[in-house]
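[audit] Reproducing an earlier prediction to check determinism. Same input, same settings, fresh worker. If the tokens differ from the archived copy the diff job will pick it up downstream; this log only records the rerun itself.
[audit] input (940 residues):
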Amino acid sequence: MKIISLKRIFLSVSFLLSCLAFAQNKPERESILIDKDWRFLFGHLYDTEKDFGHAAGYFSYLTKTGFGDGPAAKDFDDRAWRKLDLPHDWAVEQEFSKKGSFSHGFKTAGKGFPEKSIGWYRKKINIPETDNGKIISLKFDGVFRNSKVFFNGYYLGTEQSGYNGFEYDVTAYVNYGGENTIVVRADASMEEGWFYEGAGIYRHVYLQKTNPVHITENGTYIISELKNDGADVIADVSIENKGNYKGSIEIVQTIFNAENKQIANFSENILAPEFYKTITHSSKLYVENPLLWSIDSPNLYRLVTQIKQNGKIIDYYETNFGIRTMEFDPENGFFLNGKSLKLKGTNNHQDHAGIGTALPDEIQYYRIKKLKEMGANAYRCSHHPPTPELLKACDELGMLVIDETRLMGINDYHLNDLKRMMERDRNHPSIFCWSVGNEEWNIEGNIVGERITNIMQNFAKSIDPTRPVTVGISSGFKSGISSVVEIMGYNYLGNGDIDAHRNQFKNQPGMGTEEGSTFATRGIYFTDDAKHYQSAYDRKPGPSFYSIEEGWKFYAERPYLAGIFIWTGFDYRGEPTPYGWPSVTSYFGMMDVCGFPKDNVFYLKSWWGTQPVLHIMPHWNWSGMEGQEIDVWVHSNCDEVELFLNKKSLGKKKMEQNSHLEWKVNYIPGTLEAIGYKNGKKVLTETQKTTGKAENIKLSVDKENVPNSKTTVVTVEVTDKNGLHVPTANNEITFSIKGGKILGVGNGDPTSLEKEQFLDDTSLVQITNFQEQKTTTATLPHELPNYPENDWKTAFKDRDYKNQAPSYIYRGEFDLKNNLASNVVSFFYKKIGIETVVFINGKKVNASTEDSQKYILDSAILKEGKNTIYIAVTPLQKIKDWDVMNTDPGIIQVVTPTEPWKRKLFNGYAQIIIQKDENAKEVILSASAKELRAGNLNLK
């Protein structure tokens, strides 16, 4: 007999009651990521027919509410469209062309390509009847660009900028208990920036549900002030009432530490705002002995804000924040938590190899870790508001941020964009400065720029008085913006006299918002203009520009300058200065577009980081150059370095602060060895060895990957028989994967015109010359009879719907080009009859089991060129005279499978980004190439 103690019964009952209480008191706020299972197809910039007849009706969506037409209509048939997940950048999928945009990487999308400048997205979601009474909204983190959004055929609005987050209330349009349709039309025909920007819904989308009385989007604002051994935390919360409730609500603010322990609490009863009004409530909490946020210890806290009504939680909102102090001093630079900190920053755009601007969240962390590894402590968002996940990564990893708006101006377009960015981002402890502009050459040096800066600066202070404002200036540092901006942003030493400006404006702090713009190609050590390759040695890019070393020395030696932001951390698509086509990426980065380091990384790591560094450049594979002189540089922070070639000393040299060492060495195959000394003791050894030929493919997981994440960055390289990396290898590698999918491939070659993504091609073929004949019986044929040729007439023309035939036979044509046996051809039927029988080229075809109006066509019955389709039906009947009957029989979809994923190595390296399937236990990535031993990688 089993005996159960009363104590165990009591505990079990208590647990069940607690669970029941939590379920009954569950807050109504839900934020549901809806990135999965969207439909996508290109429209057209100006050809209405190719844009599916959108906005071509007598009444448009701007004429009458709910008149979204074409793909904007709720019941538009999108079954034949391509299926994909967000985030999505359609520009990166396209080929390269000399006709493409120089600044945007010569992709055949957007500006100049009307057939690839409009993208339509559609998604169906179910919203249960139980949500009736809640506020339902759609939240977009960013769509490039000029997006129009529809919900169940209702036009919600247009967002011009591709960098702003935006939200639409769809409550009034919801079909509760049924299906709802979200439609987005993105127009990327106009460029906002002079750099690659991508195209489409390249950031996350959420479905949000709240109580009518709720905290507004980005509705908390937290500031802290250190006092003795504690910190006062002032938490403002904005509350909106979109319902009819009148009465008291309770505001509860609770702070939790990183261990999820409650450390402060505040509550107060207030009156709810009136209908469609918003109020802001301020609470003051106290944190004892706070752990400060810093670049080395990015300690974070979590504020939980609850709204209660009659004791029930009706809204719940979490805000991560940090406690720290920041100060700019015109004499001594920047201080974080009272300690002097030299800003060692980089500028960066938002694209990455293989995936364009559609970065999975894990790649944000990967890139910030790469920059931290180099010694960087600051990041400038060039030149637009970033995706929220970037700032989250900077908060958690300890990277300071300059957050920058897209365009300067004083009207709603400009100030509202600035306001939205600041209200979204101002709780991030990583942000230490707002930037309201960059290199606005028309206004930098005149009174217009001065006026605009004053307005934007004061406007920013009204939203967040705790952070300063800067502008990046490049056309002289004498007047206009530079005379009034709070923190002077110097863009390049060669553009003006920084010391003279400082002497004129001694109370104005300053920093180098851009410096460098040097040219380098990873793994290249002799400039080859014919091939568009620039040597990786750190050289001046032009007479008025400075090398990375020269720039850092200038800022490091001047304590009044807060620091420097190198242009750029990573290479990016577009702006392939000093070249043009066929160069498609920039040359400015300390790392290439993949994040593989160029040699300047090791210079910065030597003087920005805290760990001992020793790096030799170049590699030592120079077959055919025996006896010729090679420049050998060593980057190190050791006191002295001795260089050896095949164990023979080439001399020991002392390292000057913020410098590098050079030797002239006649090439002999073998081993270059450097030994670094500190305080007379050997601390580091580094070698460059002449390798054998490539024999093995090696796949490895980069250490900067987020542990146990779905998305993984894999380095591809080849080694010789001794396992040595071969730095000159350019083999083409072919990939296959099980348990996951490949997102993109890259190699850092600025002139590579290879595909970055290998995707099945989906094309739609229209049914043309659609004709009909009446038949005398309602019984439909199951073998195609012969029909009199003279009896065919245009389908549906002059149809008398009150006197229809018992059945009709329709005939149409569709043209197949490159009719490969591997193609998957489907007919997506749109209902033009009650009962239906379909014949292709005289053969009856059956509907698929998954969709009764989809027919997958056997390749054996299809022909190259013209194919004939017959559709026998019993006719649909009009219920009301004004009913509009469908006359479109449907569309032919042709899916052409892609070739295998592949990429050439560039100077020894390539990169592949993979994503694990939802329910896969492991991912197996395989790589093969001619005359190389295959490589495999298993990820659990």
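[audit] rerun output stored. Observation attached for the diff report: The longest strand covers residues 213-227.
[audit] end
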